[in-house]
Write a structure and sequence with these properties.
single chain, alpha+beta, 4 helices, four-stranded mixed beta sheet, 333 residues, six-stranded mixed beta sheet, Major capsid protein gp5 fold
Amino acid sequence: MANSTPNLLGQQNLTGDAEALFLKMYANRVLSTFETQTMMESKVDVQTIGSGKSFTFPVVGRAEATYHQRGQDILDPANGFLNQVENSEKIIYLDRPLVSARLTDDWDGMVNHWESAERLASEQGSAIARKRDQQLLQLVYLASQATPALQNQPSDTNVAAGGTVNIGGSGFDFSTKANVEAVVTAIGTAAARLAERNIPMNEIYIAMSPAHYYGALTAPESPFIRAEVAKGSNGDITSGSAISRIAGFNIFSTNHMPVGTIAEENHGSDNVYGGTFPTSMLAFHRSCVGSVRRQGMRVTRTREEQYLGDLITASIVEGHGLLRAEAAVSIEA
């Protein structure tokens, strides 16, 4: 039988691609950038204010006690009963509004075959949340290197900065059990630093990059997941969230660890976020950094008739700063 010449319904103007006019099926799934998980919201001291441009955190030192002997005058300074309690303050300012905005054209909305407004608004909110996470982790490191607010405390009160703990040897190397144990030892030293400074040990955290977290998880005979005598295993290599605690710290992994030189942005306040940041793990208590919030996340949609489109903005008004330098330690190679 001879070949036939069918009428090509998908061909445009009887020429070219035989399937050009066929509908491109919409998969009902938008492939957008995966949202980066933010971790720091509940791990710092947050204060919400209704007015003003800053918030003052009073810092109060400790008193001492002395045994009284018969006949001693408590009001006589020479007898040492009267305490001079050291006071200071930490001020955190509101930054200018942090904004993520976009203008959507009416025509694009008419011809687009998937609903973009909700998805893109979510991306704008995520952009602000990422920025907040990055700034707070930068501040945790800066706190570890800062000068504490109180300088004249009783001899049994250690208010020195948490500073840096160096792993030594191979640094952040997870290829052998011995190298991983050196990392664990450094984390233990960081825990001791916080305990020596009278930091409450029930709300302490270790922030790790994904490379360090999964290196610790998959290391040979990893001490991070070995069995505990009292509570059983700390984790399982088959679990994606196996490592949860070490030396009292709650462990979490984040893509927002600060590394390298990060410039100061024009945020319009006296808060400082920039600096030079080494590759590190960060050990800290939630009191090391504070946030002052005037307006939480807000998303608005405004009609802009002169552009035949809608302006969609996500914004937040807050600021962040250092509170307790003694409550943060940087663990470095």
